[in-house]
Amino acid sequence: MSQPFDQLAFFDAHWPTLRAAAESTGGDGVIATIQAFADPLERRVLYAFARRGLVQDTWDGKDLDVPLAVARAGIDELVAQAADADTETTRAARLNVANVIAYNLAADLADCWPGDDLPRTEAHFTAGLAAAERAVAWRHALARGDHALGMAEWARGYHLLRLGRTAEAADAFATSLGHYRRAAGTVPDELSQAPFGVVLLTGYLGLAQRILGEEGPGYDAARDAFRAGTGDDADDDRFGFDQLTVAALRCVGS
After folding, report:
1. How far apart are CA 115 and CA 105, in angstroms?
2. Rg (CA), the chain
3. pLDDT digits over 30-50, tens only?
4. pLDDT tens readout for residues 98-146
5. What angle do CA 194, 199, 202 make, to 5 degrees?
6. Tag placement on the chain: N or C end, fewer CB within 10 Å?
């Protein structure tokens, strides 16, 4: 394949074939279809964008086990390609694609998304936790920065919460909040003026503390801040509010 090329267009051109494989033979079929591409770059692109179709699009028999299997295969492919890289820069770039796939998998397996009613089981949360932990490790090793680490620690915390490991979840949320605060630099005392990630993780930490029986304003304060408007984006505020609401419904039923 000549470079540069439009990676998204390449994936979109092949998505109908991948969708047919998902519908007929599940994750194994999608993986076999991708692995049939001889060009390592083409395989990287298809794995990197697979969730665009398997998670975000509709297809017959849609469930989370297919994107889970494909993401795992994609991570293995990128790790193997990284091991064969000629330079450290190339190795790091390929590991970063694995890192992104791992984080997206962890996020997709979480059940806090408004309007997402696909069923999850304990096995999904266990897999999500493993993916989040790999993303955290890669983001440290690749020096991806506080914002990226905040995202991965949130995912780790959420799956710990859903697995009933609430004290560990609270620690992960606190770590995530610390990353978001450092990424922001100066954070206003008024929560409604804080960046989105700071408000959201204040809410998640407060939710975990509430489940632990610790009284604190974090969950309600974050929802109030999103309701009042953080000054960033009204759609983001609604999304943050709804996400915290759904998370509470999933984790405590209210």
Report:
1. 18
2. 19
3. 999 999 999 999 999 999 999
4. 999 999 999 999 999 999 999 999 999 999 999 999 999 999 999 999 9
5. 130
6. C
